[in-house]
Design goal:
The chain is α/β, with parallel strands linked by helices and 478 residues long. It is 43% helix and 14% strand. A 7-stranded mixed β-sheet has the order 1-3-2-4-5-6-7. Strands 10-13-12-11-14-15-16 form a 7-stranded mixed β-sheet, sandwiched between helices. α8 links the parallel β5 and β6. The longest helix is centred in the N-terminal third of the chain and has 18 residues. The structure holds uridine-5'-diphosphate.
């Protein structure tokens, strides 16, 4: 008896016309004509996106938006999620960490390679029942790399997108590429968020640089007025108890009205009032996001110098299927929080947001980011860092480490780049400075919003993908 591994993710159409007031008539018209041209050249082929989770993390977030717009533009598109057992996801998590240059992940030997291949071969045979030979497949991240061979052997053009990477190579990245390279040999194209992430052995002519994007209308990024923001924060349980808990309405992906009703699991000794300055970092509980470093930097260098609270928020730790380390990292943060001196402990909140309802989770993140006086993303490595774009879009001052895609997003005057991600004193000084100079934080936020509109919205992302897929369906014309 065969077990179903692959799951189809329902495509929720998003009206592309809604983008027009934001991107302007010229950009919108360009999108429509490019879509019409591309649809014609696809000639009925479907584009399949395959990744490892429909919920939580940056890739799922991007796909939810892009797949919806592409569907509205009448370009045939589907999305499916692979399945696997805990051993499989432990292997792919190690690969993920290695691609971020993290050493000490242990040697991935023949046993792991065999297991990885076996799980993906089983997924591939289910996928091959759905995908037609002239369709196009876009695989995302190391979890899916092993699908390349089986699909390519069936004559299906395969593009593999790696959303992660570091600007340098070390033993760990080398080990990950050694593991993945044989699986990728027959890919027809490779996509990276930054040029520096491309390994040297990859054929230059097959490599594309396409940064991610954010969606201004998702529950994550849509406008929320100040009352709604405060009510959502009061409902999830991170604002002083006297704050009103309504209205908490937001617009769901399917266009209906949602309401934030769930509370978060909050570890705290004290809570900000509605007017207190708040520093927020929203991340998965992953060591590379350095939530622990943010806590230490805040406790040692921000809290003693003046007012302000820190909220470290991430998903409920059992919720992200392909992230087995989350619970351990969260537990480390709780232990670190307990050990803080009481005066700083009462100004730090650890927040895990329920994932039962993805849109509600997104609205919670939205409210946290909008309420922040300063947003941090003090990652030690970062493929792109969607949370940075999200914060900037909301007109917030973002302080981010000068790693990976954060470097591309925070440019002159649009935020603060930390040269050294582990220099907690400098981090603390920058946070303190912006908390003490709200005018400057506001100016940065205005520039930040404009920069994201210019560079990181969905139309630009889709046009780049269209150019890539065009070369696959019409190689002679490019
Ligand atoms: N995120 C979320 N709920 C959470 C924590 C994070 O929706 O509880 C989102 C976050 O808003 C962002 C994505 O997960 O859209 C994380 O993407 P990013 O590129 O920052 O990092 P990744 O998790 O892909 O390493």
């Amino acid at each position: 008896m065969s077990v179903t591994l692959l799951r189809s993710v329902p495509v929720l159409t998003r009206p592309a016309a809604a983008l027009e007031p934001i991107i302007g008539g010229e950009r919108y018209t360009h999108l429509l004509s490019a879509a019409a041209r591309f649809r014609y050249r696809l000639a009925g082929r479907t584009i399949w996106n395959i990744n490892s989770t429909a919920v939580g993390g940056g890739v799922a977030e991007i796909l939810q938006a892009l797949v919806g717009y592409v569907d509205d533009l009448n370009v045939p598109i589907r999305w499916a999620v692979i399945g696997g057992d805990p051993d499989f996801f432990a292997i792919t998590k190690r690969l993920h960490n290695q691609l971020h240059g993290v050493r000490g992940q242990g040697y991935l030997g023949d046993g792991e390679a065999e297991h990885y291949q076996r799980v993906l071969a089983a997924n591939a045979s289910e996928l091959l029942e759905l995908v037609r030979p002239d369709d196009l497949v876009l695989l995302h991240d190391p979890q899916t790399a092993g699908l390349t061979g089986p699909l390519a052997r069936a004559g299906i053009p395969v593009v593999w997108r790696c959303h992660i990477g570091v600007d340098w190579q070390n033993g760990a990245t080398g080990a990950a590429w050694k593991f993945l390279r044989p699986h990728l040999a027959s890919a027809h194209g490779f996509v990276f968020s930054r040029r520096k992430y491309v390994p040297s052995w990859m054929p230059e002519g097959l490599t594309w640089i396409i940064p991610p994007s954010i969606d201004p209308f998702s529950a994550k990024n849509q406008d929320l007025d100040a009352d709604t923001v405060r009510a959502i924060l009061a409902t999830i349980g991170v604002l002083d108890h006297g704050s009103p808990r309504a209205p908490t309405n937001f617009v769901r992906r399917d266009g209906t009205t949602g309401e934030v009703t769930r509370s978060a699991a909050v570890t705290c000794d004290g809570m900000p009032g509605p007017g207190d300055p708040v520093v927020v970092q929203v991340s998965r509980w992953d060591r590379l996001k350095d939530m622990g470093g943010v806590m230490r930097g805040f406790a040692d260098h921000v809290a003693p110098g003046g007012a302000g609270f820190l909220m470290l928020a991430g998903p409920a730790v059992s919720g992200v299927a392909d992230d087995p380390e989350g619970a351990a990292v969260y537990a480390e943060c709780v232990a670190q929080w307990r050990a803080l001196p009481p005066a700083s402990r009462e100004r730090v909140l650890l927040v895990t947001l329920p994932l039962d309802d993805v849109d509600e989770n997104a609205a919670m993140v939205n409210a946290l980011q909008r309420h922040a006086t300063v947003i941090t993303q003090k990652s030690l490595a970062e493929g792109f860092g969607l949370t940075v774009a999200e914060g900037m879009w909301k007109g917030r001052a973002v302080i981010g480490s000068a790693v990976g895609g954060i470097i591309d997003q925070i440019v002159d005057g649009t935020g603060v780049l930390l040269r050294d991600a582990i220099d907690l004193r400098s981090f603390g000084l920058e946070v303190r400075r912006l908390l003490d100079q709200p005018d400057q934080a506001e100016r940065m936020g205005v520039a930040a919003h404009a920069y994201i509109r210019e560079h990181y919205l969905g139309d630009i992302h889709l046009l780049r993908y269209a150019r890539l897929f065009d070369t696959l369906v019409n190689p002679a014309q490019t």
